[in-house]
Design goal:
Radius of gyration: 25 Å
Order of helices and strands: HHHHEEHHHHHHHH
Low-confidence stretches: 16-27, 233-238
Number of domains: 2
Number of helices: 12
CATH class of the largest domain: Mainly Alpha
Shape: globular
Structural class: mainly alpha
Strand content: under 5%
Mean pLDDT: 82
Distance between the termini: 72 Å
Length: about 260
């Protein structure tokens, strides 16, 4: 009798290693056209606190998908710019009165620190950049409110940039955005967006390296912002989403 050969078992293939999900790159998310479009609309006070951010309308406004919109809204919710309510949807964040006061108090501390650091680090390139921005603000037509709001925000970002501290820069950007929400929620009708001499005065003092006066001028500037708000929520109608994002040319940048 022939002996039957023992069956050879096929060697087990090693199980593929489970790959951990890639970490989300927050910097790339911040650069997303939908995120940037919504942040721009909020900073320019086109989107008011409490405005509903409907996924369908946003997808149409940006020319992209609802999945893309949902991801952008989740990111903005993590930054406390958007609030997501189960079974109701996403809304522009509306700060409380106490939170609005805390935002401006924090901004007063942060921005006086950026002025001090900017003066300490001010070099030839920094001086040229600050002068160029001041000239841009001086030439700007203040009747163009949306562009004016962007320019005034850029001044504060520039001072933080000149300070040379990434954390201060990030905090300044975040506080400025939340300031927009606080002012839009609690400002009184007819209040001016920013006094025209505030930035030229601060910029000139930074260029002169007059640290004490520059810090005092920035502190006074933030205090003027605090005086614009009152503990009473407005009831303004929210602008239509599609019209808002059409004006800031959001569609072409988002893709689909």
């Amino acid at each position: 009798m022939k002996r039957s050969r023992p069956l050879r078992r096929k060697p087990k293939r090693p199980e593929p290693k489970r790959q951990e999900p890639d970490a989300i790159d927050l910097r790339s998310t911040d650069d997303d056209p939908v995120v940037q479009g919504i942040l721009t609309a909020i900073s320019q006070k086109r989107l008011k606190p409490g405005a509903k951010l409907g996924e369908d309308k946003l997808a149409k406004a940006f020319g992209t998908t609802r999945i893309h919109i949902r991801q952008a809204l989740s990111h903005l919710a993590s930054r406390k710019v958007v609030m997501q309510i189960p079974n109701r949807g996403a809304f522009v964040y509306r700060p409380s009165w106490e939170e609005a006061k805390d935002i401006l108090a924090a901004r007063r501390v942060i921005e006086t620190a950026t002025v001090s650091a900017a003066i300490d680090r001010l070099d030839k390139a920094g001086r040229a950049e600050l002068k160029a921005h001041m000239e841009l603000e001086a030439r700007h037509d203040r009747n163009d409110r949306w562009a004016s709001l962007s320019l005034t925000a850029e001044f504060h970002v520039l001072v933080a940039k000149l300070a040379g501290n990434r954390v201060l820069l990030e905090m300044s950007r975040e506080l400025m955005l939340r300031t927009s929400l606080a002012i839009a929620t609690f400002e009184q009708p007819g209040e001016p967006d920013c006094l025209p001499d505030a930035h030229p005065d601060i910029g000139a003092l930074i260029l002169a390296r007059d640290k004490a006066s520059a810090i005092d001028a920035m502190r006074h500037h933030i205090e003027e912002m605090e005086q614009r708000i009152r503990p009473k929520e407005g009831a303004d109608e929210v602008d239509e989403l599609t019209a808002i994002f059409r004006e800031i040319d959001a569609r072409g940048r988002a893709g689909g």
